[in-house]
Amino acid sequence: MRLVQRPWYAVAAVCAVSIFAQGVVAGSPGSEPSADNQSPRFSLDGVYALASERAEWSSFQPESSIEETTTTMDYGDGGWGIDGPVFLRAADPVEAGELELKFVGRYGEPSTGDEDWRFDFVAEWGFAENWEFIFEVPVTLGDGKVQGNGDIEEFGFHTKLWDEGDWMPAFAVRNLVRIPTGYKSSGIDYQLRGLFTKTCVPCQVRWHLNPWIKAVNGHNDDEARNFMWGTALGFDYRLSDDVNFIADYQYNRGVDEGDDDDQLVEVGIDWSLSETRMLGLSGTIGVDGNDSGDDFTLGVSYIIKLGAPRMDR
After folding, report:
1. Residues facing residue 103 across a β-bridge
2. 281 in a domain, yes or no?
3. Quick one: 139 and 42 in the same domain?
4. Which class for 264: exposed (0-12), middle (13-18), buried (19 or more C-beta within 10 A)?
5. Per-residue pLDDT reduced to its tens digit, 284-295
6. What is the span of the domain harbouring residue 48?
7. How many CB atoms are located within 10 Å of the residue 213 CB?
8. Residues 231, 210: contact at Cβ < 8 Å?
9. Could you tell me the pLDDT band of residue 265, with boundaries at 50, 70 and 90?
10. For 78-101, what is each residue's pLDDT tens digit?
C-alpha cells in the first residue's frame, strides 16, 4: 500500500501559522521585552524538523507486499521423450549432451505364419539443443541371407522446430534415409516424419500425432510401392516418475502394389531403472484382418544413457 502524501501547501501553512504566532508572542517590531517579564520566543527549529520529516515520508514509497505473478501452463519437464520399442515418438528429442544406446529385440508373427526374429541396434545422440542424430541397424536373425539384412535402416536427424504453446502443439520433424549396406541391398529410401505433441495433463498425459511419407527407391522389394504414407495417433501417460505407458493406433499404406492398407494397435511401457538405464516393452496387434503385415509383434529394449559432447558449445 502506498503512503498518503501530504500536499506541500499544508506544510507551508504550518510554517506561516508558526511565524504569525511567534510575532504575536514577541510583540510589535522594534519593541524589546523587559528582563523581568520576558516572553519566551517560539522556536522554528521543531517546525522545520517536522516539515523535513513529513517531506521524507511523502517521498517514501515502499514496495507492495503483494507480489504480482504471471500464471503459465506447465507443459512438462524437458527431455521427456518416448524411448522404448514402439513406433510412436514425441516431439522432444534426446537431451543435448546425451547419447542413448538401444538394444532392441523383436518377435513378429506375420499372416503367412513364418516367425520373424530381429535385433536392432539404435544410437540417438543429442548433439545440440533441439537436435538429435539417429542411427539404426536392424538384423534379421535365423536367416542371414535375407535381402537388405544389415542395412542402415534409419540415418538422419530429429529437429524440434518449436515448443508447445497455449493452443499450439510442439512440432518436430525427422529426416531419415535408408542406406544399402546390407546383403544384396540397393537403392536409397527417404522418409519424412512429422511429430506433433500436445500436453493434456501437465507432466502426466500428452497426445501425439506422427504422420509420415516415404519415397522408395528399392526397399529391397521389387513389388514395393514407389510412394508410401501413414500416420500414428496416440498418447502417453506417466503412471509414476519412472513408468510411462504408451498406446497408439497406426494406419499405414500397404507396402506392395495390391496390398491392403495395414491397421495396427500398439501399447508399450518405458520403465526407468535408474538415471542411466531404461527398459522398454511393446506389443502390436493387427486389426485390419488382411494378409499383409504382422498379425502380432513383441518388442523389448534395454537402453543405456551416456554423456556425450555438444556441438553448440
Report:
1. 121, 302
2. yes
3. no
4. buried
5. 999 987 776 678
6. 8-59
7. 15
8. yes
9. very high
10. 447 899 999 999 999 999 999 999
116 vs 133, residue with greater confidence: 133
d(CA 115, CA 187): 27
Place of cell 502390436: 284
Q: What is the grid cell recorded at 113?
A: 505364419
Per-residue pLDDT tens digits for 209-234: 999 999 998 666 777 888 999 999 99
In order of 38, 197, 255, 258, the CA distances from 214 in angstroms are 111, 21, 11, 17
The more confidently predicted of residues 256 and 89 is 89
Residues 103 and 54 in one domain: no
| Chain-centroid distance, C-alpha 1 | 40
For residue 66, tell me if it sits in a domain: no
